[in-house]
Q: What sequence folds into this?
């Protein structure tokens, strides 16, 4: 049986490590370097924050045949890594929730996982599916990997920065005072997402975002949690990524750009 490497020993990394170990699957959990050289793995699940992934992988220097699965929120690092590394590269997203409590990890929500391949040989697919399906079941393979990732990005690009800016729980966004701003943010990002290949309408995005705000009404978004803890947020890989893509397609994105700047100013 394969040894599953987990890079990033935070909340989601530890949750995955625990779930796999509970099934008697060998796990190699690595935090910040220096790393002990003794252990190695047959594939790596990258569980750092998006802005930590490239440095973490550079320090790990995985053998080029080993599959890598980026499980960070947000997008952008995968494009640079696909150019730099020849490893089979996968992207995944999960609705499981995890929280660190000292050295322990608490599962705050059971969910699912969607993943697909960005680059490299497809031979690694069964092994990646096996690991993800054991760690974050059910795992679903998407031949068009950007579909679930862009769907998640759309939700994060509205809920995360608004809740972080105003320091409110997700459910606060259901109030009428936010509706116009949410609709304007969606109107701006819909053509960008469509140009990136996501078949979506503004109404579908609005429905999804409101459904997530409702289902997670009492939750503190990860961006707000990062702001409150004085940590760097993932806004570059969320609204920043959207703005870069808007620029690439010569589409306007002033509202997302403003939010991107505001969150950066509030958290640096
Ligand atoms: N937690 C969740 O419920 C959840 C759910 C879905 C998706 N996600 C996504 O999963 C990613 C991780 O989230 P998280 O909540 O687990 O964050 P986290 O608790 O901050 O975990 C990230 C871990 O990576 C470590 N790290 C940083 N640089 C590293 C390096 N160079 N090498 C190895 N490890 C390094 C961090 O160490 P330090 O603490 O020293 O910085 C930290 O332990 C994020 O993109 C998040 O959005 C999280």
A:
């Amino acid at each position: 049986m394969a040894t599953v490497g987990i890079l990033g020993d935070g909340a989601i990394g530890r949750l995955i490590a625990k779930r796999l170990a509970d099934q008697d699957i060998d796990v190699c959990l690595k935090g910040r370097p220096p790393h002990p050289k003794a252990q190695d793995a047959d594939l790596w699940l990258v569980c750092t924050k998006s802005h930590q992934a490239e440095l973490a992988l550079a320090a790990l220097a995985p053998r080029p045949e080993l599959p890598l699965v980026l499980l960070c929120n947000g997008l952008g690092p995968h494009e640079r890594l696909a150019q730099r590394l020849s490893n089979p590269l996968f992207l995944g997203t999960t609705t499981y929730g995890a929280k660190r409590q000292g050295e322990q990890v608490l599962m705050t929500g059971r969910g699912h996982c969607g993943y697909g391949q960005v680059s490299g040989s497809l031979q690694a697919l069964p092994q990646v599916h096996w690991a993800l399906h054991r760690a974050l079941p059910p795992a679903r393979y998407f031949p068009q990997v950007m579909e679930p990732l862009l769907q998640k990005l759309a939700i994060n690009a509205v809920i995360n920065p608004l809740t972080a800016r105003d320091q409110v729980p997700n459910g606060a966004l259901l109030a009428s005072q936010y509706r116009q701003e949410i609709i304007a943010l969606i109107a701006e990002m819909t053509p960008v997402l469509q140009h990136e290949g996501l078949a979506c309408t503004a109404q579908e995005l609005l429905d999804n975002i409101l459904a997530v705000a409702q289902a997670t009404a009492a939750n503190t978004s990860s961006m707000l949690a990062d702001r409150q803890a004085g940590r760097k947020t993932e806004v570059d890989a969320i609204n920043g990524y959207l703005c870069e893509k808007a620029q690439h397609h010569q589409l306007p994105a002033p509202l997302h750009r403003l939010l991107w700047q505001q969150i950066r100013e509030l958290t640096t």
